[in-house]
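Sample A.
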Amino acid sequence: MKREFAALTLIALTAVGFYFLVLAGMNAILKTIAVVALLVACSFSLQRLLKIEGEYGLLLVRTKKGLKFIDELAQSRPHLWNFLADVGLVMGFGLSALLIFRHRTPKKAIITGIILLMLFYQFVLPLAAPLVIELIQLPGSSQSMSISSSAAAQAASGQGGLLATVLAVLAAILSLSTIIGGVALAGALALLLKAFTILFAIASFATTAIAGHADSQILASEGPGAAPVLPGINLPFVEGVLALALLLVVHEGAHGILARVGKIPLKSAGMVFLGVVPFGAFVDPDERKLQKTDADIQDRVLVAGSASNLFTACAFFVIFFMFYYGVLFAFPTAQIGTSSVEVVAVLSNGTAYGFVQPGMKITKWRGTDIASIADFKAAANGTVPGASVEIITDKGTFTVPAGKDGKVGVQVQQVAYSFSNYVRDLSKAMPWISFLYNFIGLAFILNVLVGIVNLFPIPPFDGYRILSLKLGNKILFGKVKVMDAIVALIVASFVVNLLPWLWI
């Protein structure tokens, strides 16, 4: 009884500490480290108090409940589950799946998979990027998105022909790579491209530093390409926990169903906790029997998790648009798509410093209505030094003198009023709208991200085991194994994508 009371006390104290750390106004990296340290300490303490199985600070709570239900699902439609796993394999690895299938090539699965893959690439993925920026608080992401949008707009307008050519070539490469290697290859190339831009930014900064005029803005423009995802830290807490729970149940449940379809026994199932926070789920098949079974069965069991996540993402893609049009039908508006000019920075040596603040929207500048960057430039150009500049924003009106160069030190960007902005405004009176938006959006993007990343050839991801079954011990150069070279390249790219955390 004493142990149970001590455990309950520890859980309560950890929950309180977690709550206050989440609300603390500290650096994002320090906050993440502090939260993880608190939860890991809680895990180790609970492991000793309650004799719970644990690994690396994670608690594994095993059970046999639910295994009968998985058996029933597997036995109900075995051919359907195999077909869906084969389609998922094609979506994951594209036409390369022809090499992964060992004994036969299911033509229906190949055709269905390629059609779904292209629909996924053309329609589903384009929605994921802006939702990631909106719902996952990744430092530097909004700035990177605005830069990318500006570049695309410039190319589309016919300016910067070289840039337009580069963007067209990259788009063609990604399309071709998706057909050949599925979302796994396309995702890996995107990871490599982001790593290249980060390394280029580091090299550019080093060049300016060596020249004696280090430009820190070069590094500031590059946000991290990878980050830990924790509810309460960079995800809305309740919606994040629910979306992760759905993702994990679908992912692990699919592994279990395909294992039973392949006659592989399941030892147990359960939940993984990081302290008091649900962190994962698992289904534990008999690994020895799995490794000895037919290679096609192994492929299906291994790919089932990612396949289920991709299918779930497609379902939530449809649900998101139903929510989108449902909100607009119930609450019509003409605001969406309208643009405004927002302050992104105020120079410390500018006359507006201390008055105008980043995040304010400028509505008028010296009596001129401002709705675009062009309006702002037209109103600001030609201002003589010392002239009185009246700036009307959504947070108040400010009058400051122009500096020696006729400027006041305000840097701006053009932003469009989006559906997410409208949801936030509606949620001031109806919080449930924001809750649904967050949950549906997170369920969509987290299934997309996990479905793709889990197919990367990195231990212990499923993609590594799938490719290992095919490549085995094949040698690339001398004594270097093909799998070792691929793993090293992807892991190095992941590390580079984390580097911006050092300067954000």
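Sample B.
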Amino acid sequence: MSSAENIKQIVKNAKITINPEVKKAALKELIYELKKLKTIDSATTKLSIRRRIMKSPITKLASAAAIIIAVILFFYLIKINGPDITTIALGDVLQKVETKKYFTYRHKVSSKTNAGTPEETSKETDRITYISTEYGLRHDVYEDGQLTGILYIPSSGTELTYVMPVTKQYATGTMSEEYMKQETQVSPSGLIKEFMSHEYENLGRKKIDGVEAEGIEVNETGFYGFESTIGRLWIDIETNLPVRMEIEGIRGATESTVITYDYNWDAELDQSIFQLNIPDDYTLLEQ
């Protein structure tokens, strides 16, 4: 059955009789308003369309019956035109992320200090992160394609170990409250909470890494601890899970970019990935 036939069936099932010309005009006006509101979040859209309907001379003529039809059609059109209306509910996204027991993702971290001056320095790392609520966390850190560090954090306790393959050394330590806070903040759930704590605007939908996704953007001082920041979060419209997060910020003389991507929310992670395995010829780095 076509969309037009579905709409006609909805109106028929409502068992409300309205002058055909008034009904036609009201529907035309409703669709026009929906097109203008297609990039606004769902809560705002519902409120705005209701206000517009109530102000409309057409729907005033159609009385309460026409408004009922308009509301029915509005929610139906949201369903059939979903890709044009932003419907991200960050609370639902966070809840779904927190149910995941095993997953992996990658993130790029680049920084530039004293940009545009003779003292300019820059650094870029690429990390692969493995998460298990049962076994813990592991970061593999790469610089220029070379594995330079492996960070192991167990699922319980405050001990951590950092292994440095290039120098054949390793270091151990105890995580401070500040360090634990930072680790939590850069996790997917921590980043989502950061977005939830700021006002954001909708970016609509587009393909991100081959996936149809909805995006939001925060442009606010203090986001993620930066003095000036732009943060973007893209959510897979089918799974309601993050596809990509982008943060561009300035802190003092340093400009930083953090991108998390290539999420595998259904990864099968063996316990061996999280087991500390230090070769015999590695030496402990003194504190």
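B remarks: The domain at 90-284 is CATH 2.50.20.10 (outer membrane lipoprotein receptor (LolB), chain A). The chain has seven helices and twelve strands.
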